[in-house]
Amino acid sequence: MVHEVVAEVWRGEFLESVHHGTVVALGADGRAVLSVGRPELVAFPRSSNKPVQGLAMVRHGLDLDGELLALACASHSGEDFHVEGVRRILAKAGLGFDALQCTPDLPIGEAALAAHLKAGRGRAPEYMNCSGKHAAMLLTCVRNGWSTDDYLAFEHPLQVAIRATLEELAGERVGAVGVDGCGAPLFGISLNGLARAFGRMAGARAGTEEHRVAAAMNAHPEHVGGTGRDVTALMRALPGAMAKDGAEGVYAIGLPDGSAVALKIADGSSRARAVVMVAALRALGVDVGSLTTLATVPVLGHGREVGAVRPALALAG
């Protein structure tokens, strides 16, 4: 089977549903400590690839650090500080929001969306969760004298550099290509390769460009995700960790010792994603005591907790 049961949905004492998926956890030596499903098969990493995209841009002159570099690797919630950060990145390139070619969208954070709609604002590219990445792409193009009107083309020097960086870190060739939700090129690799890439970045020595990206994300997790986001909580709880969520149930994390986890929930939902991630980290020997709020997801009945989404036995090791 390509996928196995990785999470169970319990309503009281009744097993109501299950989530299938694929999970791989690599130790610091690169060997699989946990392997569920077929992690050697190609999948689209979706936004989990953003740290690698950020690294490719840093290697080609992206002069960002701190919260702005974290925002370049983000799927942000569209909160005011996110949008202000996007404006600051674009200003470095001498550009405005109108240069962004990502899809016009609304904030995805509940509070941010409510405030946005109350103010009578509509969809705009700067509120799209990928706008930090797109702003950084434009700044990288300006720094290199590359054209900005076609920066999303597969043959553009920026996208060629991103593909090469991904193949280098993953240790394998791209196995599929597509277009991501924001319009950027999407390169498919195996979950094994995604885990290798995250382990190599998070485990890189201080002073390297890989460490620069990973450290910025861990130091500014609220810029990578946002208020109330599990990816933000995950990096706050684990010093030195580099974590990134992605659409269609993808999640990856790299740890300072070079170990890593990559996973995909087969049905594409995000409900079980953090639950499975915490279980995989536990299998790696990581102390997940500070992640109890992510270890299960409540199942509600009339507004009160009547059950939970829990990891399946396959994740016990």
TrEMBL record:
Pfam families: Asparaginase_II. InterPro entries: Asparaginase_II. It comes from the Bacteria. PANTHER family: L-ASPARAGINASE, PUTATIVE (AFU_ORTHOLOGUE AFUA_3G11890)-RELATED. This is Asparaginase. It comes from Umezawaea tangerina.
